[in-house]
Design brief:
By secondary structure, this protein is of the alpha+beta class. The protein folds into 2 domains: about 200 residues, Jelly Rolls; about 110 residues, Arc Repressor Mutant, subunit A (Orthogonal Bundle). It is about 45% helix and about 20% strand. It starts with 6 loop residues before the first helix and ends with a helix.
């Protein structure tokens, strides 16, 4: 029986950092416009107190956020946050604190909002994996709740984490920026876990992971991607027929099990290709390919560049990162 853990292997696979950019302390009316983010960036917002309207300018759709709500935008989509009054906002004042992030305040004397805004940075090529398998918008709520046995739930853990983030954002204590950035990584992990446990998860990786019968298959593929998995074996692991497994997998993920396995393998291969001592032949074998030619074709198809081109690009990125 495979341990049902897809999140741990996913987080170990990607290289993620988080940073707080703005601490918003507004009185209504207020409005903040966020442009399309870079491909490797995921904006996030944590409503500490008050309420905010999240608006998608492309579709015109809106959703209301309240105290304790956390929203991630995995595709980096342009969005607007406002108080919902429709009134013209007054002047906004910004000042950079010693911890590195900006404090943004305004002249509004209406309903108060306290909100943290930042972004997660994902190193390529894993940004592609996130965009392909996570929804455009991901919203979860942190509450001090327990399950039937009295054990604290994921939302409760999120509430505790948000409390720590609030404390670090309000003070100028030594190491605040480093501590806050570390808390951001925990925030990302807990949001994904909470979303996968929700009853209303959109199609994608989180919907698949939250399906009790399909979870063993996804966990097995993440845990041992080099294994020569076949559909009957994965279906049997989920106590389903091959046809039923394929239908449910496609319905929840929007892609086939074979596509997911290939994506996992190519993401791991991208990490291995960064290592100077790893030849392309060794990388191919590590991720489950007996044929180097087949590996090169799969990698080029998924990453839109050859293994050699990716290796050179990754080395150049590392060189630039070390420059003063």
């Amino acid at each position: 029986m495979h341990e049902v853990d897809w999140l741990g292997p996913l987080l170990r696979m990607i290289t993620l950092t988080g940073q707080l950019e703005v601490h918003c302390a507004f009185g209504a009316p207020w409005r903040v416009v966020w442009p399309q983010a870079a491909v490797h960036e995921i904006p996030y917002h944590v409503v500490l107190k008050g309420r905010a309207i999240l608006e998608d300018p492309e579709t015109g759709t809106t959703s209301e956020l309240g105290g304790g709500d956390i929203v991630l935008l995995p595709h980096g989509a342009a969005h607007v946050l406002h108080d919902g009054s429709g009134q013209t906002p007054g002047r906004t004042y910004k000042q950079r604190g010693p911890a590195g992030w900006m404090l943004s305040e305004n002249d509004g004397d209406g309903e108060r909002l306290d909100m943290l805004c930042g972004r997660f940075l994902i190193e390529r090529p894993h940004d592609r994996l996130i965009r392909d398998y996570l929804p455009k918008t991901l919203t979860v709520r942190s509450t001090d709740s327990h399950d039937e046995e009295g054990v604290k739930s994921t939302s409760s853990h999120l509430a505790n984490l948000v409390g720590l983030m609030r404390q670090e954002s309000e003070g100028n204590k030594p190491g605040a920026q480093t501590i806050f950035n570390s808390l951001s990584l925990a925030l990302f992990a807990l949001v994904l876990r909470a979303a996968s446990e929700s009853a209303h998860v959109p199609t994608g990786l989180l919907s698949l992971a939250g399906h009790p019968r399909l979870a063993p298959a996804i966990s097995a593929m993440f845990a041992d991607p080099a294994r020569a998995w076949n559909l009957p074996e994965l279906a049997d692991m989920c106590s389903m027929s091959r046809a039923t497994f394929m239908r449910h997998f496609q319905d929840k993920l929007g892609r086939s099990a074979t596509e997911l396995l290939t994506d996992i393998r190519m993401s791991l291969a991208a990490n291995e290709l960064k290592k100077p001592a790893m030849t392309t032949e060794a990388v191919a074998e590590t991720v489950g390919y007996r044929s180097v030619a087949a590996f090169r074709r799969a990698f080029t198809d998924k990453m839109k560049m050859t293994p050699g081109q990716w290796r050179r690009l990754a080395r150049n990125d590392e060189r630039l990162a070390t420059l003063p």
